[in-house]
Amino acid sequence: MEFLTGVRQKETLEISELLAVDGEGQTVKVNGAVHTIRNMGNVAFVVLRKREGLLQCVYEEGVSKFALKDVKEADTIEIEGVLEQNEKAPNGIEIRMESIRILSEPADERMPLAISKWKLNTSVDAKLNYRSIALRNIRERAKFKIQEGITRAFRDFLYGQGFTEIHTPKLGAKSAEGGANLFRLEYFHRPAILQQSPQLYKQMMVGVYDRVFETAPVFRAEKHNTKRHLNEYTSLDFEMGYIDGFEDVMAMETGFLQYLMELLKKDYAKELKILDITLPDVSKIPAVRFDEIKQKVSEKYDRRIKNPFDLEPEEEQLISQYAKEEWGSDFVFVTHYPSKKRPFYAMDDPEDSRYTLSFDLLYKGLEITTGGQRIHDYQMLLDKLAARGMEEEGLTHYLDTFKHGMPPHGGLGIGLERLTMKLVGEDNVRETTLFPRDLSRLEP
Amino acid sequence: MEFLTGVRQKETLEISELLAVDGEGQTVKVNGAVHTIRNMGNVAFVVLRKREGLLQCVYEEGVSKFALKDVKEADTIEIEGVLEQNEKAPNGIEIRMESIRILSEPADERMPLAISKWKLNTSVDAKLNYRSIALRNIRERAKFKIQEGITRAFRDFLYGQGFTEIHTPKLGAKSAEGGANLFRLEYFHRPAILQQSPQLYKQMMVGVYDRVFETAPVFRAEKHNTKRHLNEYTSLDFEMGYIDGFEDVMAMETGFLQYLMELLKKDYAKELKILDITLPDVSKIPAVRFDEIKQKVSEKYDRRIKNPFDLEPEEEQLISQYAKEEWGSDFVFVTHYPSKKRPFYAMDDPEDSRYTLSFDLLYKGLEITTGGQRIHDYQMLLDKLAARGMEEEGLTHYLDTFKHGMPPHGGLGIGLERLTMKLVGEDNVRETTLFPRDLSRLEP
Question: EC top class, in one word (chains A, B) (predicted)?
Answer without folding.
Answer: ligase
